[in-house]
Write a structure and sequence with these properties.
It is a single chain. By secondary structure, this protein is an alpha/beta fold. It folds into 2 domains: 150 residues, Rossmann fold, CATH 3.40.50; 123 residues, Rossmann fold, CATH 3.40.50.2020. The chain has a 7-stranded mixed sheet with strand order 10-9-8-11-12-13-14. A 5-stranded parallel sheet has the order 1-4-5-6-7, with helices on both faces. The chain has a two-stranded antiparallel ribbon with strand order 2-3. A hairpin with a 5-residue loop joins strand 9 and strand 10. Helix 1 packs across helix 8, helix 4 packs across helix 5 and helix 6 runs parallel beside helix 7. It is elongated and about 65 Å long. The two termini are 16 Å apart.
């Protein structure tokens, strides 16, 4: 039986359909002062899968997740698995300065306290988050899902990471599609002038797919698009797993010259064209 939180209702329904499992009805609403109300309706089974992203508004979505999990625990559900497509508060899995809150560790503790037996996430911002849990935790990659979408609408593109740190994502997609991949690097020409260019490949006249795990403000992507335009790229598609896209990030990306922007449905967004339902269903079945 699968329960979908407010942030992931459609995704939960798609996962349930692919697994042939029941979708449990749930009532969620707010009191006038903003506090959350949760009610799990109908009869429940011994094994429950809860699907809830914890992106913006992070605090509300996390609180709803905790309320769902603790309610299931109080209903004596024997096995509670949780799917967190986007893991909010995941930017800091360790302390860099004295007195800093390790937000990912706090969230992991609260999830475990809620009686969870297994955790599934997608492209965590930091791989080390898995080690914060004492229950089995899986960091799934949505790059195969993005690769399938790219393959359906592009022919032999260059897969490009916007910086060296994202080259692993680009290489993963390129290996699936058997096409070229590269990354952008900065080279200081003078103390005042920095040149950004592809490491090895010439993109002139070619279709390019920029890939990253998260696009938030879009600043890094905008710089990549401008460089690709200057170097004669024929078509530029921007892709990511988690389309956070705060404020006017999407507008800035299109204004810079992107032809298309695609993301997955780990977060609800107008660019969430790639579903991770099959990826999650396969992992749960395994």
């Amino acid at each position: 039986m699968i329960i979908g939180g407010s942030a992931s209702q459609k995704l939960a329904a798609q996962i349930a359909r692919k697994m042939g499992e029941l979708l449990c009805p749930i009532e969620t609403r707010k009191f006038p002062d903003g506090e959350r109300y949760i009610r799990i309706k109908g009869e429940i089974e011994d094994e429950i899968i809860v699907v809830q992203s914890t992106g913006y508004p992070q605090d509300e979505n996390l609180m709803e997740l905790f309320l769902i999990l603790k309610t299931l625990q109080s209903m004596n559900v024997k096995d509670i698995k949780v799917v967190i497509p986007y893991f909010g508060y995941g930017r800091q899995e360790r302390s860099f300065n004295s007195g800093e809150a390790v937000s990912a560790s706090v969230i992991a503790d609260l999830i475990e306290f809620s009686g969870v037996s297994e955790v599934f996430c997608i492209n965590l911002h930091e791989d080390g988050i898995c080690k914060l849990f004492n229950v089995p935790t899986h960091n799934l990659s949505a790059m195969s899902s993005i690769a399938e979408y790219v393959d359906s609408c592009m022919n032999n593109p260059v897969i490009l990471a916007p910086d060296r740190g994202a080259i692993g994502f680009a290489r993963e997609i390129a290996d699936i599609l058997s096409c070229d991949c590269d990354y952008l690097e900065k080279k200081r020409i003078t103390p005042e002038v920095v040149e950004t260019k592809t490491k090895t490949l010439n993109v002139s006249g070619r279709e390019v797919v920029i890939v990253d795990d998260i696009i938030s403000t879009g600043g890094t992507i905008v710089n990549a698009i401008k460089m690709l335009k200057e170097n004669g790229a024929a078509r530029i598609v921007v892709s990511c797993v988690h389309p956070v896209l705060v404020d006017d990030a999407l507008l800035k990306i299109f204004a810079a010259g992107a032809d298309e922007v695609i993301g997955t449905d780990t977060l609800k967004s107008e660019v969430s064209m790639v579903s991770v339902a099959g990826l999650v269903a396969d992992a749960l079945n395994r």
